[in-house]
């Protein structure tokens, strides 16, 4: 533990000393549970320093910009008026750095520490984070500090107008989500937009005579063909990384001459640095629900199930966790934790069902009638020596077979030889292994999950039977359940943690069973009544709506379609329309920023919904929603004003997303 190096306050030093043991033991417990986190450096900060860190996105130093102050002021007011308290912040780095507020109670500090250990594990092992650093060492704090120093030098440079730097940073940060977050930062950006082969090269290979070539393939026709094919190639392969495209080909608008000029070296430098930062933060945005749910799950396991929260701390912890999970709106902690619990339960149920289907007389057809679920529940309970560990029960643990993989025999020997060497009363997990802890916390025996095995569907049982190639059979239910792998659920969670992001996570595991058991539903704003109403409880509708919320960080997807639109050097951007309109006022503001980075007129293709007043009135009377007319538009900005044009049908078809046109949407999606 350490305090902030620049301020060795007595309160912070005392808090750091108090947290030495919880930090050490939480890290040890996390590893016993199978987590593999980055090393974590914990810093104790005061209330104001915590707000500064939140404003800077979890780092102590960032480039100069007005938005940090705006974020700081908003966070300070939230605290002041009781709208939310920050307990911790942790960043993706090796080692990770976590900041604890010195005014937190010990119960809150322990919850933060266990939460942080799980975040550090997710940072280290989820492949979407490795796409930024690759196989190299990650030192994000140093990188962001270098970026801050570089931009600060430009701000202070007497030959560069400070306002020019600030305006340029504004323009770039306005586009920080227009990157291709699905590709590594170092990916080849040119390969996706290679130009088609020029027909002249093919004609040369055919060795036609000049007379034939001139008569059939004149130069004007070949030029027009090459331009048309190049334009079509651009339109067919839109460039998702808008910032990368502008870095390669962008110019800037010179207000004095009214023309596009090459970027100054400082502008290219700033654009490259800020694009790199956008790629660094992208995985955190892409995995927000997974990551927060993962941390909430393991925090709950450690603090509650493994009693890391002391008896006098548990009620405080439970109250605060209930507030976090009960926060209104789309809550990533709650949704993520529930999905991880579903992954665990589903894997454990599959493991148990596979064993039971190998019992003589049990088939997928008679499973629900032949299985005594109460008896199965009892047989799945952890061994008493594993479940009830206290100093006076260690001999029961020692009586298990000496090769039992559930027991940490070395630690148990020390505890039996010297009771003061291992505090089994406070930390019973020390004498168990990963396998022992998995049995101790097997999800299907927990009260809240006791009906989960019974709810297995016949279709799932039939599928399990079809793909069971192992012909081993059991003579009794007891024999079958004795071989259940209690680690199945956790093992599956670790597999999923490695490869998924929020979109793929929801797509894979937001099942009808999950939606129904957790009472999820969709709602929408109704134009006929002017209020919000429940729209659907159908699992497919819920899934589609959530997927739209998480695609591209929940932001509109914009791509570069053409950098020489209509052969006039204009930039053509396209909005990947999925049934949700852009906020056109915001879109125009963004076009102004893009114009500063392109230097020439910029165009944006999108689709607008229009409602006929008569249709709206009829729909209101009949208590239904009016059907909109979708109109393709192209908005053009030339540095002085905006023009709007009807979009060619072919272009409208190109920007419409496939198979996604979902119309139940929350208020923030409405333009």
UniProtKB/TrEMBL annotation:
SpoVR-like C-terminal domain sequence ranges: 556-607
Database matches in InterPro entries: Spore_V_R, SpoVR-like_C, SpoVR_N
Chain ranges of the SpoVR protein-like N-terminal domain: 16-353
A Pfam family of this chain: SpoVR_C
Source taxon at top rank: Archaea
Membrane-spanning segments: none
PANTHER family per UniProt: STAGE V SPORULATION PROTEIN R
Protein name: AbrB family transcriptional regulator
Organism: Halobellus limi
Classification lineage: Archaea, Methanobacteriati, Methanobacteriota, Stenosarchaea group, Halobacteria
């Amino acid at each position: 533990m350490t305090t902030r190096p620049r301020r060795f306050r007595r309160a912070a030093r005392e808090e750091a000393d108090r947290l030495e043991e919880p930090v050490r033991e939480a890290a040890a417990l996390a590893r016993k549970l199978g987590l593999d986190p980055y090393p974590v450096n914990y810093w104790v900060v005061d209330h104001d320093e915590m707000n500064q860190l939140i404003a800077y996105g979890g780092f102590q130093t960032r480039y100069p910009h007005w938005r940090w102050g705006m974020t700081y002021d908003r966070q300070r007011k939230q605290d002041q008026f009781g709208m939310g308290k920050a307990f911790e912040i942790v960043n993706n780095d090796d080692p990770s750095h976590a900041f604890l507020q010195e005014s937190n109670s010990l119960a809150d500090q322990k919850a933060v520490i266990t939460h942080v250990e799980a975040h550090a594990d997710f940072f280290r092992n989820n492949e979407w984070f490795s796409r930024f650093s690759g196989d190299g060492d990650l030192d994000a704090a140093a990188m962001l500090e270098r970026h801050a120093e570089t931009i600060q030098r430009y701000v202070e440079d007497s030959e560069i107008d400070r306002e020019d730097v600030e305006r340029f940073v504004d323009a770039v940060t306005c586009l920080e989500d227009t990157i291709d977050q699905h590709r590594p930062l170092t990916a080849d950006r040119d390969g996706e937009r290679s130009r088609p082969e020029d027909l002249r090269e093919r004609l040369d290979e055919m060795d036609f005579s000049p007379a034939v070539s001139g008569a059939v393939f004149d130069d004007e026709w070949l030029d027009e063909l090459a331009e048309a094919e190049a334009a079509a190639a651009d339109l067919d392969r839109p460039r998702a990384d808008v910032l990368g495209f502008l870095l390669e080909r962008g110019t800037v608008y010179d207000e004095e001459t009214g023309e596009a000029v090459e970027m100054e070296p400082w502008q290219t430098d700033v654009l490259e640095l800020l694009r790199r930062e956008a790629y660094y933060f992208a995985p955190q945005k892409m995995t927000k629900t997974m990551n927060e749910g993962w941390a909430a799950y393991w925090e709950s396991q450690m603090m509650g199930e493994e009693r890391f929260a002391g008896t006098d701390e548990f009620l405080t912890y439970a109250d605060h966790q209930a507030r976090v999970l009960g926060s209104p709106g789309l809550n990533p902690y709650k949704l993520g934790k529930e999905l991880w619990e579903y992954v665990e339960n589903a894997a454990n149920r599959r493991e148990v069902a596979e064993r039971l289907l190998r019992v003589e007389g049990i088939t997928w057809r008679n499973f629900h009638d032949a299985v005594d679920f109460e008896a199965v529940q009892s047989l799945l309970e952890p061994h008493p020596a594993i479940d009830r560990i206290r100093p006076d029960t260690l001999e029961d643990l020692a009586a298990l077979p000496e090769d039992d993989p559930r027991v940490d025999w070395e630690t148990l020997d020390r505890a039996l030889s010297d009771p003061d060497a291992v505090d089994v009363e406070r930390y019973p997990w020390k004498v168990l292994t990963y396998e022992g802890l998995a049995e101790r916390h097997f999800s299907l025996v927990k009260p809240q999950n006791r009906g989960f095995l019974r709810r297995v569907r016949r279709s799932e049982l039939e599928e399990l039977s079809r793909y069971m190639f192992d012909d081993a059979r059991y003579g009794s239910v007891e024999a079958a359940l004795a071989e259940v792998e209690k680690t199945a659920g956790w093992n599956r969670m670790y597999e999923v943690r490695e490869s998924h992001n929020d979109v793929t996570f929801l797509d894979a595991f937001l099942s009808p069973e999950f939606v129904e058991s957790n009472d999820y539903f969709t709602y929408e704003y109704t134009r006929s009544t002017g209020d919000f109403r429940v729209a659907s409880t159908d699992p497919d509708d819920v899934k589609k709506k959530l997927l739209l919320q998480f695609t591209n960080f929940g932001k509109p997807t914009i791509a570069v379609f053409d950098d020489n639109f209509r052969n006039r050097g204009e930039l053509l951007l396209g909005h990947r329309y999925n049934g949700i309109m852009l906020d056109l006022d915001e879109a125009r503001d963004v076009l102004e920023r893009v114009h500063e980075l392109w230097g020439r007129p910029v165009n944006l293709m999108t689709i607008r919904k229009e409602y006929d007043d008569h249709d709206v009135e009829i729909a209101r009377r009949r208590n239904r929603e009016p059907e909109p007319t979708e109109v393709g538009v192209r908005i053009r900005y030339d540095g002085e004003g905006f023009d709007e044009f009807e979009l060619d049908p072919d272009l409208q078809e190109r920007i419409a997303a496939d198979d996604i046109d979902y119309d139940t949407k929350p208020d923030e999606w409405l333009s």
